[in-house]
Batch of 2 targets.
Target 1
Amino acid sequence: AQSVTQLGSHVSVSEGALVLLRCNYSSSVPPYLFWYVQYPNQGLQLLLKYTTGATLVKGINGFEAEFKKSETSFHLTKPSAHMSDAAEYFCAVSDLGTGGFKTIFGAGTRLFVKA
Amino acid sequence: ETGVTQSPTHLIKTRGQQVTLRCSSQSGHNTVSWYQQALGQGPQFIFQYYREEENGRGNFPPRFSGLQFPNYSSELNVNALELDDSALYLCASSLRLAGGGTDTQYFGPGTRLTVL
């Protein structure tokens, strides 16, 4: 069965510091992996995705994530945080199993950026 | 290219009532998924529709049902509303891939449902 675990419901960094948001997943088949960002009172915006191929994926706004199959991880990073990065971040896994297509989201990590 | 739109933006219902939420898919997309996002939680997958048929379902009771129309727009219907149904309901459209999975999902802004 699919599952997604995001370590840390809240992460706080200083402006200019490294951002690291952790995501571990489980899936019985090769998964598609995603990171989304959600600003208050808005829908979800895709940051980046992994389907096949290169395991280091670059997304929008300077974010990137690396798919590590051996660790079942897909952590999100950004070298230098900006105030505008403060938001809720969700990791998600999608696959097509016997029960049909399903997408499972993690519980989310709220990123705070301090001036 | 138009984005995903949802209506209404906000809705207040009382327990036991029925509600219909609507979603218009992004142009060119043939698949729509619905999610429930309770306050402070991640989105929970309700179901997905492809070619007007349910293509996958999460752990939601049968009182949650859906429709997809030939123009790929969609409805989410919830019968016998309960207080715990209060949430943000998100619709996402995407393009089904040859292998059966779907490409990137594009989300609408959501409908905020409050059940009193």
Target 2
Amino acid sequence: RKEVEQDPGPFNVPEGATVAFNCTYSNSASQSFFWYRQDCRKEPKLLMSVYSSGNEDGRFTAQLNRASQYISLLIRDSKLSDSATYLCVVSLNNNDMRFGAGTRLTVKP
Amino acid sequence: DGGITQSPKYLFRKEGQNVTLSCEQNLNHDAMYWYRQDPGQGLRLIYYSQIVNDFQKGDIAEGYSVSREKKESFPLTVTSAQKNPTAFYLCASSIERTFYGYTFGSGTRLTVV
């Protein structure tokens, strides 16, 4: 079993749609959780951290379920510019970050 | 502007050749990391360093070497012992002992010719 698993997609959605990604992790001792965005042939960029209480940043909402060991990312009112690969990242500590392979999203006009 | 600079952006290596990838940061971050990304796979940790003159092996250190002589710099050498070096290499840094995530450089795409 992979340490961090994501559905690779691709998710193809129309503009304005709501789309959700899930990610599961295997190590119950994991302490920190993040979503990164990676554009084609570019470096990953931090989208948001994920907190136990759930958190929202504009159109993006992240949730953590420790009991079931999964995190989710919800994108509302999708924009063309949201097209990217979304990486789920789980950390035991600052020197042990585990990356999922990513979920690819394409938003179409 | 503060950030991480990786160079070169593209690098071609001949069989049996060692090559060095540069990573420089001016964020005053303590920790620096090297990752490798292959298509369809998550990033895998090669080496990391928490302080100057100290570094630790990651999950896939074989065939690679690093040095950390200055806080700002963490170069990666891909040696001839690395049998499948074609990949996208990413350098990252972070403030030690925080969970704010990493800042990445723009990457170096290495190809064996």
